[in-house]
């Protein structure tokens, strides 16, 4: 395999990427050409916020081709376009042979939630001390247990399951891989609704639940109906603010609400958004992220 590296400005990124795909590139990816340099710029967005810019000030667009001849021909064609004045070729390089499966797997080790509760990829043995194990492989949907927001929710579930034996219904709002719903099920919860706006998350949650031999319903958000003794949502601060009335309406009397995806500096805005219904408190923090929880009176 050969990789063609093109450098272009923000305005050309989409056109160059589309042109590469049209010219039979096997894969195209875009990176910040100024990454790890003093000119590096953050580029991010959040649902409900203005859309982020289309690309970095300078991007490196990488495209895979089966041969040098095809990569060279593609570069020549792109550079001859009247819009391509600001595009230039940085390199054409052979891609080193690697065991890609092994490389990917090596990035995912078992994750400790509590000394007894672990998330373990299917190609690993569970650690000897693990009494409760969730088998989970990385896939299309968010939630492998490696992100602090997911870990904090799971730790809360593991620590509170013994104290709250009555999770007769659970709502996991924004379920991703289904990891929180499955975590609740492994800790005795029943009648679990795992909902997400992303159809890939619904497919992943069903498959992961089956792999762990637990029962749950995974569906679009409309499937959330009625009141639940446990409502969980690990999304991001802006959607969580907008979802406050809806999530609180699903809380049964005495229900617990657990929210994640919130940065430390966003605690007060979340407290304010939920104040008409519940008193949110910060109950855990990891790597700049916080877990906020509340109990309905
Ligand atoms: C950060 S992931 C969390 C996944 C998993 N629950 C976890 O804790 O690792 C957030 C998920 O929320 C979903 N999501 C985002 N906005 C949503 C909304 N308004 N309603 C339902 N799901 C939403 C996303 O599709 C994504 O799968």
TrEMBL record:
Catalytic activity, as annotated: L-lysyl-[protein] + 3 S-adenosyl-L-methionine = N(6),N(6),N(6)-trimethyl-L-lysyl-[protein] + 3 S-adenosyl-L-homocysteine + 3 H(+)
Top EC category: transferase
Pfam families reported in the protein's UniProt record: PrmA
InterPro entries in UniProt: Ribosomal_L11_MeTrfase_PrmA, Ribosomal_PrmA_MeTrfase, SAM-dependent_MTases_sf
Keyword set includes Phosphoprotein: no
EC number(s) given by UniProt: 2.1.1.-
Top-level taxon in the UniProt lineage: Bacteria
Coiled coil found in the keyword field: no
GO biological process: methylation
Primary location: cytoplasm
Gene Ontology MF term list: methyltransferase activity
Keywords: Cytoplasm, Methyltransferase, Ribonucleoprotein, Ribosomal protein, S-adenosyl-L-methionine, Transferase
Subcellular location: Cytoplasm
Ligand binding (S-adenosyl-L-methionine): 150, 174, 196, 234
Gene Ontology cellular-component annotations: ribosome
Function noted in UniProt: Methylates ribosomal protein L11.
Family: Belongs to the methyltransferase superfamily. PrmA family.
Entry-linked NCBIfam families: prmA
Full protein name: Ribosomal protein L11 methyltransferase
Organism, scientific name: Roseateles oligotrophus
């Amino acid at each position: 395999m050969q990789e063609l590296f093109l450098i272009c400005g923000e305005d050309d990124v989409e056109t160059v990427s589309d042109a590469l795909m049209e010219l039979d590139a096997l894969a195209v990816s875009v990176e910040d050409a100024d990454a790890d340099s003093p000119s590096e710029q953050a580029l991010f967005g959040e649902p409900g916020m203005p859309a982020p810019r289309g690309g970095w000030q300078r991007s490196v667009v990488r495209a895979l081709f089966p041969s040098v001849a095809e990569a060279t021909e593609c570069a020549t064609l792109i550079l001859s376009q009247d819009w391509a004045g600001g595009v230039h070729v940085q390199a054409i390089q052979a891609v080193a042979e690697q065991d890609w499966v092994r490389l990917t797997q090596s990035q995912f080790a078992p994750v400790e939630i509590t000394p007894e509760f672990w998330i373990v990829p299917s190609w690993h043995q569970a650690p000897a001390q693990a009494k409760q194990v969730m088998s989970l492989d990385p896939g299309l949907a968010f939630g492998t247990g490696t992100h602090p927001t997911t870990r904090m929710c799971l730790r809360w579930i593991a620590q509170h399951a013994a104290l709250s034996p009555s999770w007769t219904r659970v709502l996991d709002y924004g379920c991703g891989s289904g990891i929180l719903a499955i975590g609740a099920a492994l800790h005795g919860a029943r009648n679990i609704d795992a909902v997400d706006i992303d159809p890939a998350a619904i497919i992943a949650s069903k498959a992961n639940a089956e792999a762990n031999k637990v029962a749950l319903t995974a569906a679009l958000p409309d499937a959330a109906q009625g009141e639940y003794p446990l409502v969980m949502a690990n999304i991001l601060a802006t959607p969580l603010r907008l979802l406050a009335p809806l999530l609180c309406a699903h809380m049964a009397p005495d229900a617990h609400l657990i929210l994640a995806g919130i940065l430390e500096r966003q605690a007060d805005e979340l407290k304010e958004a939920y104040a008409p219904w519940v008193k949110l408190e910060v109950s855990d923090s990891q790597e700049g992220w916080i877990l906020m929880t509340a109990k309905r009176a």
